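To: structure subgroup
Subject: Chain for Friday's discussion

All,

I'm putting the inputs and outputs inline so they're searchable in the archive.
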Amino acid sequence: MSKENFIQEIETGYTFEGASIDLGAAMYDKETQSDSIVRLPLSMMNRHGLIAGATGSGKTKTLQILAEQLSAKSVPVLLMDVKGDLSGIAMPSAGHVKIDERHAAIGFPFEAGSSPVEFLSLSDEPGARLRATITEFGPVLFSKILGLNDTQSGIVALAFKYCDDKKMPLLDLKDFRKVLQYFMGEGKAEIKAEYGTMSSVSIGAIMRKMVELEQQGAEVFFGEHSFEIDDLIRIDENGKGMVSIIRLTDIQNKPKLFSTFMLQMLAEIYATLPEQGDSDAPALALFIDEAHLVFKGASDVLLDQIEATIKLIRSKGVGIFFITQNPADMPDAVLGQLGLKIQHALRAFTAKDRKAIKLAAQNYPITEHYDVAQLLTELGIGEALVTVLNEKGIPTPLAHTMLRAPQSRMDVLTEEEIQDIIDKSRIIEKYNEVIDRESAYEILNGKIEEAQEDAQQEKNKKEQAKAKKTTSRRTRKEKSMFEKVMSNTTTRQIGRTVARELTRGLLGALGIKSTSRRRKSSSWF
């Protein structure tokens, strides 16, 4: 096919009736065609997307371009900043001669600009703290995060039901652990009577899964004040969409926490936003950098949940864009849901790499203009293969594209600049306040302490009654013995007295008679 036919194909395929984003200019035979602009239709940006490519090929800058262009079109943006290099979107570019050269080749001038930014954090990074309560997860999602079997999931559901019935808030992990401990200890009889018997072995397995989650820092994520989705979909006074940047530089070695947060965030967005179907622009664009962290080591159940959420959340007007090195990092079920694909260069250093490139090439529309597998290894920095769904939902022709430069700074902000943005934040005071209100942990502790006090009082009463009974029995016994002893002593005393008196009486009588006889005898002489 000739160059003219190629240009016509690009112009036809990338011209849309509604609003669009200018991404760059198409390239033919490695030459930029300034009259063949590659655009992205704003109305189809809720069909999700993929930005892939080797390290250093320009993925992050492409993410930056899309984010700032969406913000300029009044679309709020949420960025997962794993490497810490996206903060520059808050400041305008200082410009550069190479940027001017690039835009001269593309066919439209370069204009520096910035976007309104809000910094968020899951941990100790500067920014408004993101939190969620156990209750907001619900028993199904919480069980999937922990990777529980059906029996263990049933216990989790029972724990939620018990706390609902008893009006006990489940806010953080210590609340849930206390409930499980109560099930195995003081509350075992109560639970058995109301809900049936449950295995202590299964409860122990759940608690071990919770320890695994805690070791990745989840205890700082669960709790209050829960983040409200309305604070993610703000428009500033200039009509630009707010770009919320979640700083995740310390989360790279905590994939369990990252996937937990992502699932909760997607579930909360889906539950909060109204149905809007097809519209002129998405309600929110979500960019997940280093997306392999979400799927690394994820269970089949967790992957199914992510896939289902991605399918359903489109109707809420939310577009999700994954940024990773190779399309192979994405599960096939998820990859099949991505309408926008921007593929940067891949490197073929090994035989395995070459096989991966051939597979990656098969993810893109068939074209007569390029040897896709070969071109993937030859793309320069800031170049990519692009395809998107047009307004009828049909994939556009594959276009080798020279991408425009970001209007904002292509570097990180200084600590002072970040702090200045945080100081001006309207929400940081709201979310960084530490709240630890009475919840299941405190209520059950109070219940256990009360039960222990009642048990101690009952024990004391029994001991007092036993001591009183023992004392009474001992007193009666001593009295009986005393009476017996006294009775024997008195009898013996009386006997001795009577005997003595009788003896005295008898001896007295004998004495009188003897004296009388002696007197008589003496009178005979």
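Points worth raising on Friday:
The chain has a mean pLDDT of 83.
The radius of gyration is 43 Å.

D.
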